[in-house]
Write a structure and sequence with these properties.
globular, six-stranded mixed beta sheet, four-stranded antiparallel beta sheet, 13 strands, binds 2-deoxy-2-fluoro-alpha-D-galactopyranose, alpha+beta
Length: 391
């Protein structure tokens, strides 16, 4: 769906590009994502239930005759220059995701030339809606179009994910890039992160709004703690493999194995793995709830997920826990939990439509009083994945 906002954004982007480079660009947009349930399960071969949202990264670009890459960010009002044979990981934050993708294309042996690119976006940065995956997917999709590379969507997703690993240094799973690229209007994606098989599940919660409450904090340890969690999960698997060699990931593990092989050796690793094993099972059950239209049961599972993320996986923070405590016993809120990697960002709340405005107002006041910060909020709807903007 194209809103007035998108239209203004796309026109502005085009105008700035034409002014800077005196030629008409190709424009691509790629969305941020929400995730209903299945958190920190993607890199453990589990299930996730994300959806792409009506907030996007936009790139406008055109070929050059030389090997230069000239980037301009409208939002940061910054320029960055690089060269195909010297992409060296930039100090500025935003070019990392674009050049990381170029690096992947070159490593995969694709032949591209230099290009001019202007970027802007409506995915809030650091709010847990995966603005970085949106930029990576927009970039890889756009370069694939521009240079006629013929890369399949799933391979673009994998390249975008690897760009995040190698240039941004975050060993993320595949969920964010997959959701951005494969999203579909009004559909959730039930993705098996082991086989990469997926199905669209209609998002049919009539009278229910998705409200994201943004803590307005992003704690600095987020990416190192993320990588540390991943290592702890791998350690759990290794401990079990000594006795059960067929186990490849936490997807293959049950509580009995954890109790027997991990708990006696490493209590911290045990707690991390316990959360993941439970969350993989919970996500499967939550998908069944959705099929049966049992949103009450689905919502309860979201609260359970938050509890696990906070007490076992320890990726929540005081601000996120506060927001959950505010909605936990509210009958107008079916379910809520922190969303994404953690240590800040948003909570995702399923709220009865008629109660949403009132709820946001009350929590904003309470948040300011208790935490001393402004609370941001977003209403999001589920929209299509990466696409070319034809105009
Ligand atoms: C971040 C990562 F990028 C995802 O791959 C996923 O692991 C998520 O955190 C947690 O579920 O968004």
């Amino acid at each position: 769906m194209i809103t007035q906002n998108d239209f203004v954004m796309e026109e502005k982007l085009k105008e700035i590009f034409v002014k800077k480079f005196e030629t008409t660009p190709l424009i691509v947009k790629s969305p941020g994502r929400i995730n209903l349930i299945g958190e920190h399960t993607d890199y453990n071969d589990g299930f996730v239930l994300p959806a792409s949202i009506d907030k996007y990264a936009y790139v406008a670009l055109q070929k050059r005759d030389d090997d230069k890459i000239s980037l301009y960010s409208i939002d940061f009002e910054e320029q960055h220059e690089a060269c195909l044979n010297d992409l060296s990981s930039p100090e500025k934050h935003w070019p990392v995701y674009i050049l990381g993708v170029v690096d992947q294309l070159l490593k995969a042996g694709f032949s591209i030339k230099g290009f001019n690119l202007v970027i802007c976006g409506t995915v809030p940065i650091g709010a847990g809606m995966s603005s970085s995956a949106a930029v990576e997917c927009a970039t890889v999709f756009a370069l694939n179009e521009l240079f006629g590379l013929g890369i399949a969507k799933i391979d673009m997703v994998k390249m975008a994910q690897k760009a995040e690993h190698e240039f941004a240094g975050v060993k993320c799973g595949i969920m964010d890039q997959f959701a951005s690229m494969f999203g579909k209007s009004n559909q959730l994606i039930r993705l098996d992160c082991r086989s990469l098989e997926f199905e669209y599940v209609p998002f049919l919660m009539k009278g229910i709004k998705i409200v994201l409450l943004d803590t307005n904090v992003k704690h600095s340890l987020a990416s190192s703690a993320y990588n540390e969690r991943r290592i702890q999960c791998e350690k759990g698997v290794e401990l079990i493999q000594q006795y059960q060699p067929l186990v490849k990931s936490l997807r293959d593990v049950d509580m009995e194995m954890l109790d027997k092989y991990v708990l006696p050796v490493d209590e911290l690793v045990y707690r991390r793995c316990k959360y993941v094993v439970e969350e993989i099972e919970r996500t499967t059950k939550a998908c069944n709830d959705l099929k049966e239209h049992d949103f009450i049961s689905f919502g309860k599972k979201m609260f359970k997920t938050h509890e696990g993320l906070s007490t076992l996986y320890e990726v929540s923070c005081a601000e996120l826990d506060f927001l959950i405590s505010q909605v936990k016993n509210n009958p107008d809120v079916l379910g809520a939990r922190m969303m994404g990697g953690g240590f800040g960002g948003c909570t995702i709340n399923l709220v009865k439509e008629e109660a949403a405005d009132d709820l946001i107002e009350k929590i904003s006041i309470a948040y300011q009083k208790a935490i001393g910060r402004k609370l941001n909020y977003y209403h999001v709807s589920v929209d299509d994945g990466t696409s070319t903007v034809n105009r």
